[in-house]
Specification:
This protein is an alpha+beta fold. The chain is built from 6 helices and 16 strands. About 11% of the residues have low confidence.
Length: 333
């Protein structure tokens, strides 16, 4: 009915009084689609399901009282009521009055109100910049204020939300120190440190071929060109930079295809054991016709790059990301 579901940041938040889209930090190992359903339920009291991926973007916000600049990668999903939900009307779609009556604010959380706001009234609210962009409204800079109640570090680590709608990650990486304790005179096993990393990749095709890179630390395994999103970097810019470093080609970023989540314990390229959670943004991309790829970044995670014919893919060892992405190949590729 022309209204937007919004939540207001509470006095426990760094941006008290500002309005967000409902959502929050991706817990370690959690799939982002599970995150958005969980966070919406926590902040609004209603259960919804993911209908599709709308967009991915990033922003950097200053929080002076914490002495940090916060880089947040935001995944925007379309949600809908479950079939048969009491606020779903077959004639009009979402029955706004029924939905509004079901809303309830988060209890003692980082949001204190949930409301269906008519689009015409949204511009008069103090919106967070990413909300303004999503609604096509002019942006204003948010003012960070010290929370009325001190926020514990555990609430700013990605496990909980420091500001409604924010991950609370200062640099995009959540690493906890390993625990080591002595028992019966013997050191206890050291837990692998947690690492949560956002990355961007590109699916590039040309005349029945796909652009693949070979991982230097996993001999013979091929994947898509791409890699970690740097602090302050937009995901699309990360994809462009990574394709240049790993293939030496100028990338034109196309449509957003998917966001992939993978959680495992293994060794990083430097040999360090990690409890790793990767959130990978996948775009379709193009490079100039007839381009010859070459690895530009010497000594990095890529030691080869090739155009691989589609009829050769079945014989190549591929990463899970590459295998999943290849399902999105266009028929004419």
């Amino acid at each position: 009915d022309g209204a937007v579901l919004l939540v207001r940041a509470s006095r426990r938040s760094d941006f008290a009084g500002h309005w967000f889209l409902p959502g929050g930090g991706v817990r370690h190992g959690e799939d982002p689609q599970e995150t958005v359903v969980r966070e919406v339920a926590e902040e609004t009291g209603i259960g919804l399901e993911v209908a599709g991926l709308r967009g991915v973007e990033a922003d950097v916000l200053d929080i002076p009282h914490r002495g940090v600049r916060l880089h947040t990668v935001r995944l925007l999903y379309d949600l809908r009521p479950h079939p048969g939900s009491r606020w779903l009307d077959e004639a009009v779609g979402v029955a706004a009055d029924v939905l509004a009556s079901a809303l309830r604010p988060e209890t003692d959380g980082t949001s204190d109100a949930a409301a269906l706001v008519p689009e015409a009234e949204c511009a008069r609210l103090p919106l967070m910049p990413f909300v303004s962009r999503a609604l096509g409204l002019p942006e204003t800079e948010p003012v960070a204020v010290p929370p009325a109640r001190p926020v514990a570090r555990a609430e700013t680590s990605g496990e909980d939300v420091a500001a409604a709608g924010d991950t609370g990650l200062v640099d995009g990486t959540h690493a906890e120190p390993p625990e080591a304790a002595a028992a019966a005179g013997e050191p206890a096993p050291v837990a692998a440190p947690r690492v949560q990393r956002s990355a961007a990749y590109a699916l590039v095709t040309d005349q029945g071929r796909v652009l693949l890179t070979r991982l230097a630390h996993a001999e013979g395994v091929w994947t898509l060109p791409g890699g970690g999103i740097r602090f302050g970097e937009q995901p699309v810019d990360a994809a462009i930079r990574e394709v240049h470093e790993e293939a030496g080609l100028p990338l034109t970023v196309g449509e957003l295809i998917d966001v992939d989540s993978r959680h495992f314990t293994g060794h990083a390229p430097d040999g360090v054991l990690e409890d790793f959670h990767g959130i990978r943004v996948l775009y379709r991309g193009e490079v100039p016709a007839g381009s010859v790829p070459r690895v530009v970044e010497i000594g990095g995670t890529t030691d080869a790059v090739e155009w691989v014919r589609l009829d050769r893919l079945s014989g190549l060892p591929l990463t899970a990301l590459a295998a999943k992405a290849l399902r999105h190949l266009p028929a004419q590729a």
